[in-house]
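Lecture 7 notes: from sequence to structure.

We start with a single chain of 121 residues. Read the sequence below before looking at the structure.
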Amino acid sequence: QVQLVESGGGLVQPGGSLRLSCVASGFTLDYYAVGWFRQAPGEEREGVSCISSSDGVTYYADSVKGRFTISRDNAKNTVYLQMNSLKPEDTGIYYCAAEFNGDYCGSSDYWGQGIQVTVSS
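Now the structure, written as tokens:
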């Protein structure tokens, strides 16, 4: 069964850090661009970051540039999102998504169920 499962979310204070993990099963993540998306309550889903399948180039939303880092570990079939200097506006449900031979995570083939990230004092 093809699945993406997120982990590593939770409650953190402003200025703190979290590392999200996205583990793929049933397929090899190496051939997929993987993106992180988030959705705040009552808001639209937005793209946060993406790592390309073609050359490994990374992309970040302006709102997280310099604070978040996306990476992958092919041996573990896992993609990470390191989130530093977290702000309350980073709060939301975070989803990972995979696009076969993708470059910009614009049309995902598979989605995870999402995981809550709450930044609050």
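DSSP finds no helices and eleven strands in the chain. Keep this in mind for problem set 3.
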